[in-house]
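User: quick one, fold this
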Amino acid sequence: MNAIYRGRKRTNLILLTVSGFTVVFGLFWLAWILGTLFYEGGHALARATLYYQMTPPPGADGGLANAIVGSALLISMGTLLGTPIGILAGTYLAEFGKSNWLANATRFLNDVLLSAPSIVIGLFVYSIYVVQVKHFSGWAGALALALIVIPVVVRTTDDMLKLVPNSLREATAALGCPPWKMIVFVTYRAARTGIITGILLAVARISGETAPLLFTSLNNQFWSLNMNAPMSNLPTVIFQFAMSPYQDWHRLAWGGAALITLAVLLLNIVARSLFRRTD
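Assistant:
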Protein backbone atom coordinates (compact mmCIF):
# COMPACT_ATOMS: atom_id res chain seq x y z
CA MET A 1 0.00 0.00 0.00
CA ASN A 2 2.89 2.36 0.79
CA ALA A 3 4.37 1.73 -2.66
CA ILE A 4 1.01 2.50 -4.31
CA TYR A 5 0.65 5.67 -2.24
CA ARG A 6 4.16 6.84 -3.09
CA GLY A 7 3.54 6.16 -6.78
CA ARG A 8 0.31 8.16 -6.76
CA LYS A 9 1.95 10.99 -4.83
CA ARG A 10 4.84 11.06 -7.30
CA THR A 11 2.44 11.10 -10.26
CA ASN A 12 0.40 13.86 -8.64
CA LEU A 13 3.55 15.94 -8.06
CA ILE A 14 4.67 15.49 -11.66
CA LEU A 15 1.28 16.48 -13.06
CA LEU A 16 1.02 19.49 -10.75
CA THR A 17 4.49 20.61 -11.81
CA VAL A 18 3.66 20.25 -15.51
CA SER A 19 0.34 22.06 -15.02
CA GLY A 20 2.00 24.90 -13.14
CA PHE A 21 4.68 25.20 -15.83
CA THR A 22 2.07 25.43 -18.59
CA VAL A 23 0.15 28.10 -16.64
CA VAL A 24 3.32 30.16 -16.17
CA PHE A 25 4.24 29.63 -19.84
CA GLY A 26 0.84 30.86 -21.03
CA LEU A 27 0.78 33.82 -18.63
CA PHE A 28 4.28 34.82 -19.73
CA TRP A 29 3.24 35.25 -23.36
CA LEU A 30 -0.02 36.94 -22.37
CA ALA A 31 1.85 39.41 -20.16
CA TRP A 32 4.37 40.02 -22.94
CA ILE A 33 1.64 40.73 -25.50
CA LEU A 34 -0.32 43.01 -23.18
CA GLY A 35 2.84 44.74 -21.98
CA THR A 36 3.96 45.44 -25.53
CA LEU A 37 0.49 46.61 -26.50
CA PHE A 38 0.14 49.10 -23.67
CA TYR A 39 3.77 50.20 -23.86
CA GLU A 40 3.40 51.06 -27.54
CA GLY A 41 -0.20 52.28 -27.34
CA GLY A 42 -0.12 53.96 -23.95
CA HIS A 43 1.30 57.18 -25.37
CA ALA A 44 -1.54 57.42 -27.88
CA LEU A 45 -4.18 56.60 -25.24
CA ALA A 46 -2.89 59.40 -23.03
CA ARG A 47 -3.31 62.01 -25.78
CA ALA A 48 -6.70 63.73 -25.82
CA THR A 49 -6.49 64.24 -29.59
CA LEU A 50 -6.99 60.50 -30.06
CA TYR A 51 -10.64 60.86 -29.06
CA TYR A 52 -11.78 64.00 -30.88
CA GLN A 53 -9.67 64.38 -34.05
CA MET A 54 -10.21 62.55 -37.35
CA THR A 55 -7.86 59.98 -38.85
CA PRO A 56 -5.04 62.02 -40.42
CA PRO A 57 -3.29 61.90 -43.79
CA PRO A 58 0.35 60.71 -43.80
CA GLY A 59 2.69 62.99 -41.88
CA ALA A 60 -0.08 64.87 -40.04
CA ASP A 61 -1.28 64.69 -36.46
CA GLY A 62 -4.73 63.33 -35.74
CA GLY A 63 -6.86 60.88 -33.83
CA LEU A 64 -9.40 58.10 -34.20
CA ALA A 65 -12.67 59.88 -33.43
CA ASN A 66 -14.41 58.84 -36.64
CA ALA A 67 -13.17 55.25 -36.28
CA ILE A 68 -14.31 55.04 -32.65
CA VAL A 69 -17.78 56.35 -33.45
CA GLY A 70 -18.02 54.17 -36.56
CA SER A 71 -17.10 51.06 -34.59
CA ALA A 72 -19.64 51.95 -31.91
CA LEU A 73 -22.36 52.30 -34.56
CA LEU A 74 -21.45 49.05 -36.34
CA ILE A 75 -21.24 47.08 -33.09
CA SER A 76 -24.51 48.55 -31.81
CA MET A 77 -26.41 47.84 -35.02
CA GLY A 78 -24.90 44.36 -35.35
CA THR A 79 -25.91 43.55 -31.79
CA LEU A 80 -29.42 44.96 -32.25
CA LEU A 81 -29.90 42.94 -35.43
CA GLY A 82 -28.42 39.68 -34.17
CA THR A 83 -29.55 39.52 -30.55
CA PRO A 84 -33.36 39.17 -31.05
CA ILE A 85 -32.87 36.48 -33.69
CA GLY A 86 -30.41 34.61 -31.46
CA ILE A 87 -32.67 34.79 -28.39
CA LEU A 88 -35.76 33.63 -30.31
CA ALA A 89 -33.87 30.77 -31.97
CA GLY A 90 -32.37 29.70 -28.65
CA THR A 91 -35.82 29.87 -27.06
CA TYR A 92 -37.23 27.56 -29.73
CA LEU A 93 -34.43 25.06 -29.21
CA ALA A 94 -34.79 25.00 -25.42
CA GLU A 95 -38.55 25.33 -24.99
CA PHE A 96 -40.19 23.88 -28.09
CA GLY A 97 -37.70 21.98 -30.22
CA LYS A 98 -36.16 19.92 -27.42
CA SER A 99 -34.62 16.98 -29.27
CA ASN A 100 -36.56 16.70 -32.56
CA TRP A 101 -34.74 16.51 -35.88
CA LEU A 102 -35.15 20.22 -36.65
CA ALA A 103 -33.67 21.24 -33.30
CA ASN A 104 -30.75 18.84 -33.71
CA ALA A 105 -30.07 20.11 -37.22
CA THR A 106 -30.29 23.71 -36.03
CA ARG A 107 -27.84 23.07 -33.20
CA PHE A 108 -25.42 21.41 -35.61
CA LEU A 109 -25.61 24.28 -38.11
CA ASN A 110 -25.29 26.80 -35.30
CA ASP A 111 -22.11 25.11 -34.08
CA VAL A 112 -20.73 25.20 -37.63
CA LEU A 113 -21.53 28.90 -37.91
CA LEU A 114 -20.06 29.50 -34.46
CA SER A 115 -16.70 28.12 -35.57
CA ALA A 116 -16.75 29.50 -39.12
CA PRO A 117 -13.94 31.96 -40.00
CA SER A 118 -15.18 35.52 -39.94
CA ILE A 119 -13.71 36.19 -43.39
CA VAL A 120 -16.16 33.64 -44.81
CA ILE A 121 -19.04 35.58 -43.30
CA GLY A 122 -17.63 38.78 -44.77
CA LEU A 123 -17.41 37.24 -48.24
CA PHE A 124 -20.96 35.91 -47.89
CA VAL A 125 -22.37 39.36 -47.05
CA TYR A 126 -20.27 40.88 -49.82
CA SER A 127 -21.76 38.50 -52.39
CA ILE A 128 -25.39 38.79 -51.32
CA TYR A 129 -25.53 42.47 -50.33
CA VAL A 130 -22.55 44.60 -51.40
CA VAL A 131 -22.48 43.23 -54.93
CA GLN A 132 -26.22 43.78 -55.30
CA VAL A 133 -26.24 47.41 -54.11
CA LYS A 134 -22.87 48.07 -55.80
CA HIS A 135 -21.25 49.93 -52.89
CA PHE A 136 -19.81 49.31 -49.44
CA SER A 137 -21.86 50.49 -46.49
CA GLY A 138 -22.24 50.47 -42.75
CA TRP A 139 -25.37 48.33 -43.08
CA ALA A 140 -23.35 45.61 -44.78
CA GLY A 141 -20.82 45.72 -41.95
CA ALA A 142 -23.58 45.57 -39.32
CA LEU A 143 -25.14 42.59 -41.13
CA ALA A 144 -21.81 40.74 -41.13
CA LEU A 145 -21.33 41.42 -37.41
CA ALA A 146 -24.92 40.32 -36.72
CA LEU A 147 -24.20 36.96 -38.36
CA ILE A 148 -21.33 36.54 -35.91
CA VAL A 149 -23.50 37.56 -32.94
CA ILE A 150 -26.37 35.18 -33.73
CA PRO A 151 -24.70 31.79 -33.09
CA VAL A 152 -23.13 33.01 -29.84
CA VAL A 153 -26.47 34.23 -28.51
CA VAL A 154 -28.30 31.12 -29.76
CA ARG A 155 -25.89 28.81 -27.95
CA THR A 156 -25.96 30.82 -24.73
CA THR A 157 -29.75 31.21 -24.69
CA ASP A 158 -30.27 27.51 -25.38
CA ASP A 159 -27.88 26.47 -22.61
CA MET A 160 -29.18 28.97 -20.05
CA LEU A 161 -32.86 28.11 -20.60
CA LYS A 162 -32.06 24.42 -20.22
CA LEU A 163 -30.70 25.17 -16.74
CA VAL A 164 -34.06 26.55 -15.59
CA PRO A 165 -35.73 23.86 -13.40
CA ASN A 166 -38.74 22.18 -14.97
CA SER A 167 -40.59 22.65 -11.67
CA LEU A 168 -40.96 26.34 -12.52
CA ARG A 169 -42.52 25.48 -15.88
CA GLU A 170 -44.82 22.92 -14.27
CA ALA A 171 -45.90 25.39 -11.60
CA THR A 172 -46.87 28.03 -14.15
CA ALA A 173 -48.66 25.44 -16.29
CA ALA A 174 -50.63 24.28 -13.22
CA LEU A 175 -51.80 27.86 -12.72
CA GLY A 176 -53.11 27.94 -16.29
CA CYS A 177 -50.41 30.27 -17.61
CA PRO A 178 -50.01 30.25 -21.42
CA PRO A 179 -46.63 29.01 -22.70
CA TRP A 180 -45.60 32.44 -24.00
CA LYS A 181 -46.23 34.06 -20.62
CA MET A 182 -44.33 31.27 -18.91
CA ILE A 183 -41.32 31.91 -21.18
CA VAL A 184 -41.42 35.71 -20.90
CA PHE A 185 -42.16 36.09 -17.19
CA VAL A 186 -40.58 32.96 -15.71
CA THR A 187 -37.86 31.29 -17.76
CA TYR A 188 -36.46 34.49 -19.22
CA ARG A 189 -36.23 36.04 -15.78
CA ALA A 190 -34.58 32.94 -14.35
CA ALA A 191 -32.01 32.82 -17.19
CA ARG A 192 -31.66 36.59 -17.59
CA THR A 193 -28.13 36.84 -16.20
CA GLY A 194 -26.79 34.05 -18.42
CA ILE A 195 -28.44 35.45 -21.54
CA ILE A 196 -27.04 38.94 -20.87
CA THR A 197 -23.63 37.38 -20.32
CA GLY A 198 -23.84 35.70 -23.73
CA ILE A 199 -24.78 38.98 -25.39
CA LEU A 200 -21.83 40.77 -23.78
CA LEU A 201 -19.47 38.00 -24.89
CA ALA A 202 -20.83 38.29 -28.43
CA VAL A 203 -20.21 42.04 -28.36
CA ALA A 204 -16.67 41.42 -27.14
CA ARG A 205 -16.09 39.01 -30.00
CA ILE A 206 -17.23 41.35 -32.77
CA SER A 207 -15.40 44.36 -31.34
CA GLY A 208 -12.10 43.41 -32.96
CA GLU A 209 -13.30 41.69 -36.13
CA THR A 210 -11.47 43.03 -39.16
CA ALA A 211 -11.94 40.55 -42.00
CA PRO A 212 -15.74 40.86 -42.42
CA LEU A 213 -15.57 44.67 -42.34
CA LEU A 214 -12.93 44.80 -45.08
CA PHE A 215 -15.49 43.28 -47.46
CA THR A 216 -18.55 45.18 -46.22
CA SER A 217 -18.16 48.61 -44.60
CA LEU A 218 -14.57 49.11 -45.83
CA ASN A 219 -13.32 52.43 -44.40
CA ASN A 220 -13.82 56.19 -44.45
CA GLN A 221 -11.19 58.77 -43.58
CA PHE A 222 -13.81 61.41 -42.79
CA TRP A 223 -16.55 61.81 -40.21
CA SER A 224 -19.68 59.99 -41.36
CA LEU A 225 -22.81 58.72 -39.63
CA ASN A 226 -24.39 57.56 -42.88
CA MET A 227 -24.94 53.81 -42.56
CA ASN A 228 -25.58 53.56 -46.29
CA ALA A 229 -22.01 54.63 -47.15
CA PRO A 230 -18.53 53.32 -46.33
CA MET A 231 -17.89 53.81 -42.63
CA SER A 232 -14.69 54.13 -40.67
CA ASN A 233 -14.07 51.61 -37.89
CA LEU A 234 -11.23 50.77 -35.56
CA PRO A 235 -10.26 47.28 -36.85
CA THR A 236 -9.83 48.35 -40.48
CA VAL A 237 -8.05 51.57 -39.48
CA ILE A 238 -5.64 49.55 -37.33
CA PHE A 239 -5.04 47.18 -40.24
CA GLN A 240 -4.44 50.03 -42.68
CA PHE A 241 -2.23 52.08 -40.36
CA ALA A 242 -0.18 49.11 -39.16
CA MET A 243 0.63 48.13 -42.77
CA SER A 244 1.76 51.65 -43.66
CA PRO A 245 5.37 52.98 -43.48
CA TYR A 246 4.40 56.08 -41.46
CA GLN A 247 5.34 56.30 -37.77
CA ASP A 248 2.40 58.58 -36.94
CA TRP A 249 0.00 55.99 -38.28
CA HIS A 250 1.80 53.23 -36.39
CA ARG A 251 1.31 55.15 -33.14
CA LEU A 252 -2.42 55.52 -33.83
CA ALA A 253 -2.67 51.84 -34.75
CA TRP A 254 -1.15 50.87 -31.39
CA GLY A 255 -3.52 53.25 -29.62
CA GLY A 256 -6.54 51.80 -31.41
CA ALA A 257 -5.45 48.25 -30.59
CA ALA A 258 -5.01 49.16 -26.92
CA LEU A 259 -8.42 50.84 -26.90
CA ILE A 260 -10.15 47.75 -28.30
CA THR A 261 -8.31 45.53 -25.82
CA LEU A 262 -9.43 47.67 -22.88
CA ALA A 263 -13.04 47.65 -24.14
CA VAL A 264 -13.05 43.85 -24.57
CA LEU A 265 -11.42 43.42 -21.15
CA LEU A 266 -14.09 45.59 -19.56
CA LEU A 267 -16.89 43.64 -21.26
CA ASN A 268 -15.42 40.33 -20.10
CA ILE A 269 -15.15 41.62 -16.53
CA VAL A 270 -18.78 42.75 -16.62
CA ALA A 271 -19.89 39.41 -18.10
CA ARG A 272 -18.02 37.40 -15.48
CA SER A 273 -19.33 39.55 -12.63
CA LEU A 274 -22.88 39.02 -13.86
CA PHE A 275 -22.30 35.27 -14.15
CA ARG A 276 -20.95 35.05 -10.61
CA ARG A 277 -24.18 36.46 -9.23
CA THR A 278 -25.90 33.22 -10.21
CA ASP A 279 -23.52 31.14 -8.00
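User: anything notable?
Assistant: The CA atoms of residues 122 and 215 lie 6 Å apart.
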